[in-house]
Amino acid sequence: MSEWLYECVVPGSPIGKGRAKGTAVGGYVRMYTPKKTADWERSSAVVMSSYWQDAPIDDPVEVEIISLAPRPKRLLRKKDPDGVLLKPSKPDSDNICKSVLDALVMAGVLRDDSLVVHHEVWDLYSERDRGPKIAVRLRVASSVPVDDWWNRVSQTLVSVFRVGAESDLPW
Residue 57 has what DSSP assignment? Predict the structure, then answer.
C-alpha cells in the first residue's frame, strides 16, 4: 500500500448529503443542494484546503472517512462505554461520504469525486469526552483487489441454476 497523501480533521457535527431540491425559475426547473448541506460543504472545504496546498489530485484514489457524531443523551449514562460506539442512525454513512467527497472537490484536493475507486466509511458516535468531527485521509490507489470473491459468487450462482433446466439460464 502507498503512503497516505492527505489527512485532515474537520471539527463539528457530520452532515450527510441532503436530497436535491427543485424550484421553478423562468418556467424551468432548477435543482439545488439544500442550504444546510451546502453550508457544511463550503465550511469543510475551507478547512480541507488549509491541509492541502498542491494541485488537485488527478489519479485514482482510495479514501477513508471516520465520522464521529455527538452522542445522544441516551448514551451518556454512567453504564455506557467511554470510547467510540457504532452509529446505526441518520445521517447514513453513504450520504456523509457524498458530502465529504464534494467538499474535497471544492477544496481543490481532488479534481473530481469520480477518481475515488475505493472508499471506507465508519459512522460512529464520538467518545464521551470529545466533540464531533470528521477525519479524512486519502492515497493513490495501488492496485485492484487480490481476492476475486466476485468470481466465486458468480460461479456458485451458475452452479445453482444448472441444477434446474439448462435452457432456462439467461446467459
Answer: B
In which order are the strands placed within the sheet that holds 133-140?
A: 6-11, 133-140, 61-69, 116-125, 85-86
Report residues of the chain scoring pLDDT below 70.
1, 156-171
Structural contact between residues 47 and 41, judged by C-beta atoms closer than 8 angstroms: no
> Quick check: 16 and 91 in contact, CB under 8 A?
yes
Distance in angstroms (rounded) separating the CA atoms of residues 89 and 124:
9
CA distance 18 to 99: 9
- Going along the chain from its start, the domains and CATH numbers come out as 6-168 (3.30.1330.70)
Q: Please count the other Cβ atoms lying within 10 Å of the Cβ belonging to residue 27.
A: 5
- As a residue count, the chain comes to 171
Cβ neighbours of residue 59 under 8 Å, at least 6 residues apart? 115, 140, 141
DSSP 74: G
Question: What are the tens digits of pLDDT across the range 85-96?
Answer: 999 999 999 999
Separation between Cα atoms, residue 119 and residue 135, nearest integer Å: 13
Please give the model's pTM, rounded to 2 decimal places.
Answer: 0.84
Element (H, E) at 7: strand 6-11
- Only one residue has cell 457535527, namely 13
